[in-house]
Amino acid sequence: MPANSWPENNSFPEFEPLSSILSAWSDSESEAAEDVYRGYKGRRRKAAVLLVFVWSGTVALHLLSFGSWIVLGFTGVMGIHALRVLLTRPADAPPPLSEETREHWPRVSLLVAAKNEEAVIAKLIDILCNLDYPKTLYEVWAIDDNSSDRTPQVLERLQKKYDNLKVFRRSADATGGKSGALNQVLPLTCGEILAVFDADAQVSPDVLRRVLPAFHRPQVGAVQMRKAIANPSVNFLTRGQMAEMALDSYFQQQRTALGGIGELRGNGEFIRRHALERCGGFNEETITDDLDLTLRLHLDRWDIEFLMVPVREEGVTQPLALWHQRNRWGEGGYQRYLDYWRLILSNRMGIGKTWDMFNFWTIQYFLPAATVPDLLMAIARNRLPVFAPITSLAIALSLVAMFVGLRRIETSSSRQSRSQPTSSRFIHLLQTLRGTVYMFHWLGIVASIAIRMSVRPKRLKWVKTLHQGS
User: Fold this and answer.
1) 3-state class of 26 per DSSP?
2) What is residue 29's predicted lDDT score, i.e. its pLDDT?
3) In Å, what is the CA distance from 31 to each residue of 41, 183, 235?
4) Mean pLDDT over residues 90-98, rounded?
5) 295-323 in b/e burial notation, b at 16+ Cβ within 10 A?
6) Distance from the CA of 61 to the CA of which of 14, 163, 319, 347 falls in 20 to 30 A?
7) What is the spatial order of strands in the sheet that 108-114 belongs to?
8) What are phi and psi of 428, to 5 degrees?
């Protein structure tokens, strides 16, 4: 496609919109309708069935004489996919928008949902209202979600300062959390492309020029920026999160280049309006709108691209805050598979994406959920855990990905600032080992989530991450 053209939003895909299927399910009287969309009823039952399957399957593999061979065979198959991920050449970033094509640049709406964000919201609004992009082609929407601190006063002052800032205040009885806030403002926006930022985000002035070219391919429904930690030197937790984001960026690059699953991360996500509308907007029945929308976009046959353009955010500094945040991420990620399992198994995404998703679901969710029975059976039978081969593969893959991810980020940052990299391979190795130790918290979180979702009814509750403005 020529660099000076912009694809028609309605040109892709010629496929039954996912929103139509979900609406049909919601209007149906069938059990499937109750399980899948409106209200997402049946999550506890589905979580319990899945947990019974995982635990009983783990015990059966211990008792079968050939159980270890089944696991070894499956590890070999997963290993092939892991090698493909490691050996794939990441896609090159498209060149930034040039002045010669200015008349073809799209309109963009930047959305920030804020609840009690007086410590950080002003800094972000100052950045977004002064981007290197024509003021007539973008707007900034700050959504005050019934804040009880000075956020309304801060936004009122900023609205007088910037003509392209629009402020929307939600009422005390508004529902749906962040998704509800975004959905409420969506009809008021005018952009072909929508960008969502958290209140503590930090981006460079040329962010739109660097991100928007990724939408020139009409199959692209969304683009995710690389998340980076703005305060990595505070303590062990923030240093661990820095390594975790490097791991995430590596897998995002490799999986999208391989034709696999690219994922949205809530902060620094850009979405084609037409794609969002085809998927039914933001889901107000989930606690992780980004992870839910990721799956719905892929089920609707859109691609999600990933760019190494950084969006910085505060890393949490306290163990309890990390526990709450990662429980929300883990539960939201887990429940989306329960919500859409029928569409996933119908291969609506295509074989490549479905297989890629299954491999990473096994590592991220299946293995942690199987940890308890696997360890108990291993102790009882005085043998190694039956899933030790897959676990070893997952750890090895994570080590390589984290190390290479850290080096890529430094190389990319150095290239951007036109300086030489300062960290040695030894420093990156130490960061990788520390990050790997930090990442073991995920085992306990997912294992507890799998049990909790199976026995306790879910009440939607958004636990806010407090931002200090550091």
Assistant:
1) helix
2) 44
3) 9, 27, 49
4) 91
5) bbbbbbbbbbbbbbbbbbbbbbbeeebbb
6) 347
7) 165-169, 138-144, 108-114, 193-197, 269-272, 220-229, 303-313
8) -65, -35
Q: How confident is the model over 269-288, as a mean pLDDT?
A: 93
Q: In 3D, which of 187, 175, 203 has the Cα closest to residue 141?
A: 187
Distances (CA, A) of 372 to 56, 155, 390, 437: 12, 49, 15, 19
Confidence at residue 458, expressed as pLDDT on a 0 to 100 scale: 60
Which residues make Cβ contacts (< 8 Å) with residue 372, sequence separation at least 6? 55, 447
Q: Give the CA count within 13 Å in the CB-facing half-sphere of 111.
A: 29
**What is the helix (H) or strand (E) element at residue 248, kind and residue range?**
helix 236-257
Domain ranges in the chain? 32-95+217-470
Mean pLDDT of 368-392: 95
* Distance from C-alpha of 470 to C-alpha of 415, rounded to nearest angstrom: 26
For 399, half-sphere exposure in the C-beta direction (CA atoms, 13 angstrom radius) is 10
β-bridge partners, 229: 313
Radius of gyration of the chain (CA): 22
Task: Report helix, strand or coil for 193.
Answer: strand
Mean pLDDT of 319-331: 92
Residue 441 phi, psi dihedral angles, 5° rounding: -65, -25
What is the distance between the alpha carbons of residues 405 and 245, in angstroms, rounded to a whole number? 9
What's the pLDDT score for residue 461? 56
Q: Return d(Cα 158, Cα 163) in angstroms, integer.
A: 9
Q: Where are the alpha helices (DSSP H) in 162-235?
A: 177-185, 207-211
CB atoms within 10 A of CB 260: 24
CA 358 to chain CA mean position, Å: 16
Looking at this protein, which amino acid is placed at residue 464? Answer: K
List Cα–Cα distances, 468 to 235, 311, 429, 465, in angstroms: 15, 17, 30, 10
pLDDT tens-digit readout, 123-165: 999 999 999 999 999 999 999 998 899 999 999 999 999 999 9
**Residue where the block lists tokens 């102790």:** 379
Contact between 125 and 200 (Cβ < 8 Å): no
More confident residue, 28 or 378: 378
Task: Record the pTM.
Answer: 0.90
Closest by alpha carbon to 108, among 3, 1, 194?
A: 194
* pLDDT single digits (tens) 351-364: 999 999 999 999 99
Give the helix, strand, coil percentages of the chain, each rounded to 5.
Answer: 60, 10, 30
The tokens describing 60, both together, are 């059966």
Tokens of 359: 């491999």
Amino acid at 219: Q
User: Tokens 């997963």 correspond to what residue?
Assistant: 78
